[in-house]
Each structure stands twice: as structure tokens, then as C-alpha cells.
Amino acid sequence: MKKDSQNAPKRRAPREASAAAPARREEVLDAGLSLISELGVAGASLRKLAARLEMSQPSLYHYFDSKDALVRQIIEHCASRMLEAALHVEFPRSIDDIPRFARDAALALWATEQHPRFVRFLFVVAIESPEHRRSIQRVFEERLYPGFGFLAVAYGRDPQEREDLRLMTRTIAYAMGLALMEERALFGADAPSAEVLRLGDFIVRASERVLASRAASGPIAASITPPEVPNSG
Q1: Is there a contact between 31 and 59 (Cβ–Cβ < 8 Å)?
Q2: In a domain, 163, yes or no
Q3: Which of 82, 108, 104 is nearest to 93 (CA)?
Q4: Burial of 113 by CB count in 10 Å (0-12 exposed, 13-18 middle, 19+ buried)?
Q5: Handedness of CA 144, 181, 220, 99 (dihedral sign)
Q6: What CATH number is associated with residue 143?
Q7: Is 12 part of a structural domain of the chain?
Q8: Rg (alpha carbons) of the chain, rounded to whole number
Q9: Among 88, 68, 77, which residue's Cα sits nearest to residue 114?
Q10: Using CB atoms within 10 A as the burial measure, which of 165, 174, 213, 223 is most buried?
């Protein structure tokens, strides 16, 4: 007996990986970022997130199956965006230009609308959900810290000089990051103040002087002791 093709149940079309799908996922994660940074981990829920997005709660399970999974995906997503800001900053022309690049990269990162919210989110998650601290630490270790050594490897002529450059880049990024976090994440300022920009200029000039004096005074960081090679004899 032939099956009536007209009466046969229609098979659900598979979800297409259209251009809208990644954009919708980013919208969902961004809404989750705002919700948790505003209400905390305990105060946020998938029900509240669905209401904010004007979608049904079951529809969220297409992206994650729990609030813990949402937190992990936000960490991964936002961390992947952190270093993208530096791609729009003019690459250093020489070793002496590294301080300028480090400052401008920090300013570019904090100029984004998402990063201040992400920083508030990280503090909330680290305080309320200690089980996620390892995920946050892993993101720093795998994505942020290697960035400090990238320029050092590109411009440093020996291990000691590369270590000095790595620590200098980290110092500039942290000094600028703390000042910008204060204004953008804590105070809610829309842009860095003249005082923070003045601080950035000071940091760059001070770092340039350190680099200039290094040739005469020698390495800055403690000497790097090469690892011992086991005696095979």
C-alpha cells in the first residue's frame, strides 16, 4: 500500500547556520552578560533572560541548558573579544613604540561598550560562584597573559630584554586598566577623563625613558636563570 505523501507528517527542517544565527547567539549572550552584571548570579535566571529577550525559556536551551552553562559561554565569548580591540590599534613601529601601543590598546579595549560590563560580570561571578573562578583564571592564562609576551618576542633581542618588555607591557596595561576600570566600570563614565588620558601620556613617557636608559644601566628584571639540563651521564 502506497503512503499518502500529502498526509505524511512533515519533517521539521534542520536549523540553518545562517548569518542570523551567530548574531542571535551574540544577542543572547550579551543580554545574559547584562542580566548577571546587574542582578548577580543568584538574582539572574533563564526565565528572566527569556523575558528580557522576549522569547520562550525553552528556546534558550538551543544555546545552553543551564545557568552555569550560560556563565561559561559568556566568559568564553567575551574573552575572545578582549584582544580584538588591539587589532584596530597601529602596530608598534619599533621597540621604543611599544609603550604607546600598550596604552592605546588599553584605551581601545575600554572604549568598547561591552568590556566595562564584562569586568563587572567577572567580579560578580568570582564572588558569587567560586566554582567558575578556574574558568576565569584559564581565560587569563590562555588569552590575556600570552598577549603581553607577543611584542616582547617580536622585538626583544635576547631573553632578558624580552622579559623586560613583557613586564613593561603588562605594567602599562594594568596601570591603564585599573584607571579605566575605576571610571568606566565603577563610576559609569562614558569615556576616559582628561586625567586618565594625562596619566596615559605620563606612563608612555616614563616607559620610553626606562627603555632609553636600559642600554646604559642594563636589564631591569631579575636575571632569568635557564633551566637545569639533567645530566644523562
Answers
A1: no
A2: yes
A3: 104
A4: exposed
A5: positive
A6: 1.10.357.10
A7: no
A8: 24
A9: 77
A10: 165
**Angstrom distance (rounded) from CA 170 to CA 165:** 9
Q: What is the pTM of this model?
A: 0.82
Structural domain includes residue 43: yes
Helix, strand, or coil (residue 58): helix
User: 124 burial class (0-12, 13-18, 19+ CB within 10 angstroms)?
Assistant: buried
- Buried/exposed 129-167: b ≥16 CB within 10 Å, e otherwise: beebeebbeebeeeeeeebbbebbeebbeeebbbbbbbb
Residue type at 114 in one-letter notation: Q
CB 95 within 8 A of CB 169: no
When divided into structural domains, the chain yields a total of 1
Q: What is the pLDDT of residues 186-218, one digit of tens each?
A: 999 999 999 999 999 999 999 999 999 987 888
Domain that holds residue 61: 20-217
Task: Say if 210 falls within a structural domain.
Answer: yes
Q: Cell 545557568 sits at which residue?
A: 67
- pLDDT tens-digit series, residues 75-132: 999 998 887 888 899 999 999 999 999 999 999 999 999 999 999 999 999 999 999 9
